[in-house]
């Protein structure tokens, strides 16, 4: 339901509205005039702006044409220069490849030599082991030699012993036969001498009894004389008497010792003579005969001859062993020197192989660089857009790297070589300087 609106007549509002509408009409008329003036000004400004804009567009198109022509010339010049440099690089790469192939062939030959040398080294190693065993055996031989002299001194072969024993037995038998004759002759002599000694001793006993009787008579005479001597000369007489007593006692003692010696000799001869002639055991006889000077001399001569033979044999053996040792030591030294030389050669070959492995790994892991090209967006430019798009389309089509680009990427890589060995031409293609061979970004025109 719509409600009805009652409008009451208000005289004051009517006046107010009329006044406001009148003022609004005036304002509208004034604004219409201002708007028309502004409209005319805007039309004039738009015409001026269009003229300026057309002039600016013409200038911009001229600049773009000039820049495009200069860029085109630069691109063509750079492209021609790159082609020349690529041809040079191709030649350099061919020479480099030839050198590497030659080095690879030489190194393969050396590797084969190394393999053959390895087999030879294994053989030498086995020989060295055998030589070490021989060295240990030689040391054992030295110890045995040191004990051999003592064994030779203490031992004698059975044949030599039998020969020497037979000769010694014959000499002993001869000595015994001679000794028996000498003993019989000596026994006879000793018996005759004993009888002579008995006779002389009996004579000496008679003389002693006579001397004792004479001394007793003298003593009695002296006593008689002493009694007749005065008291003053008693002391002198007593001293002489004591001297006479001493001399008498000394002569008695000497005579008693001579008699006892003669009795002892007689008792010994009477006991030993019958048993000495009998032959019971050879050992006892040999032991008794060894004390004789002749047998001792013969045994000494035999021992000296045996010692001389032992010394001469040991000297000859030692000389032979020393010569063989020196030969073995010279051979060992020559083999060690050859091994050291071959080890140094192997180390050099291993270094060369490591360098080749690094180069091969770098050849296998080649890196390709991508070039970024941006499109040109310029307002109100239609003439040169086609040319720029054609250039961009050409660069976008070249996604696959060519053979020359691969070579450049390989040469741009960092190689572990000395600075002196690098080629001057290859230094230009260092990765740090690689930006100058890329197409620069085309900046947007503002």
Which properties best describe this structure?
82% helix; 446 residues; elongated; 8 helices; mainly alpha
Structural account:
The protein has 446 residues and is mostly helical. Among the domains are: 158-291; 366-446, no CATH class. Helix content is 82%, strand content 0%. The protein has 8 helices and no strands. The chain starts with 10 loop residues before the first helix and ends in a 19-residue tail after the last helix. 1% of the residues are buried.
| End-to-end CA span | 66 Å
Poorly predicted residue ranges: 269-283, 367-385, 394-398, 414-420, 425-446
SSE string, helices as H and strands as E:
HHHHHHHH
Would you tell me the overall average pLDDT? 66
Radius of gyration: 74 Å
Report the helical percentage: over 70%
Shape: elongated
Content of β-strand = under 5%
Going by helix content, strand content and strand pairing, the class is mainly alpha
Number of strands: 0
Number of helices: 8
The description of the largest β-sheet is: none
Topology of this protein?
Elements: H1 11-154, H2 158-228, H3 234-276, H4 282-289, H5 293-364, H6 385-397, H7 403-412, H8 424-427
Helix pairs in contact: 1-5, 2-3
């Amino acid at each position: 339901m719509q409600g009805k609106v009652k409008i009451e007549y208000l005289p004051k509002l009517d006046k107010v509205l009329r006044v406001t509408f009148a003022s609004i009409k005036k304002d509208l008329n004034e604004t219409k005039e201002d708007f028309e003036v502004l409209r005319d000004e805007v039309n004039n400004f738009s015409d001026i702006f269009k003229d300026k804009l057309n002039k600016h567009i013409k200038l911009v198109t001229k600049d773009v044409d000039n820049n495009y022509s200069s860029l085109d010339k630069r691109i063509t010049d750079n492209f021609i220069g790159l082609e020349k440099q690529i041809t040079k690089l191709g030649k350099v790469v061919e020479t480099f490849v030839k050198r590497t192939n030659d080095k690879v062939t030489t190194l393969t030959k050396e590797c084969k030599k190394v393999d053959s040398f390895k087999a030879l080294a294994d053989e030498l190693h086995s020989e060295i082991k055998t030589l070490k065993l021989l060295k240990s055996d030689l040391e054992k031989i030295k110890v045995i030699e040191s004990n051999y002299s003592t064994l030779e001194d203490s031992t004698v072969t059975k044949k030599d012993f039998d020969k020497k024993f037979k000769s010694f037995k014959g000499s002993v038998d001869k000595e015994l036969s001679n000794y028996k004759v000498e003993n019989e002759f000596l026994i006879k002599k000793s018996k005759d001498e004993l009888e002579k000694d008995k006779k002389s001793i009996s004579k000496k006993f008679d003389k002693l009894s006579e001397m004792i009787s004479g001394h007793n008579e003298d003593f009695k005479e002296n006593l008689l004389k002493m009694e007749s001597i005065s008291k003053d000369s008693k002391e002198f007489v007593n001293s002489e008497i004591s001297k006479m007593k001493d001399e008498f006692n000394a002569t008695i003692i000497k005579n008693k010792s001579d008699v006892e010696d003669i009795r002892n000799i007689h008792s010994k001869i009477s006991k030993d003579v019958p048993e000495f002639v009998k032959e019971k055991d050879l050992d006892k006889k040999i032991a008794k005969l060894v004390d004789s000077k002749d047998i001792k001399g013969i045994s000494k001569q035999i021992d000296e001859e045996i010692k001389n033979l032992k010394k001469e044999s040991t000297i000859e053996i030692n000389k032979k062993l020393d010569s063989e040792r020196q030969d073995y030591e010279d051979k060992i030294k020559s083999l060690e020197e050859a091994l050291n030389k071959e080890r140094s050669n192997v180390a050099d070959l291993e270094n060369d192989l490591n360098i080749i492995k690094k180069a091969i790994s770098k050849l296998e892991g080649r890196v390709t660089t991508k070039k970024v090209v941006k499109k040109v967006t310029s307002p109100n430019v239609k003439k040169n857009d086609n040319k720029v798009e054609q250039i961009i389309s050409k660069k976008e089509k070249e996604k696959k790297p060519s053979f020359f680009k691969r070579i450049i990427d390989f040469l741009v890589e960092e190689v572990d070589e000395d600075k002196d060995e690098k080629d001057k031409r290859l230094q230009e293609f260092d990765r740090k300087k690689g930006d100058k061979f890329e197409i620069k970004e085309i900046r947007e025109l503002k």
